Amino acid sequence: MTLQVSITPELAQAPLVTFGFDSFEVRLVSVMRHFVTAANAPGSQAWHRGFVIAAENWGETHGLAVAHALWPVVREVLALRQGDFAFNDPLDLDTRDLLTADEAQFIAMLHHMRRDETGKARDAVDALTRGQMDPELIRAGLSFADRFPSGARHRLRGTPSLRVVQ
Question: Could you name the domain of life of the organism this protein comes from (predicted)?
Answer without folding.
Answer: Bacteria
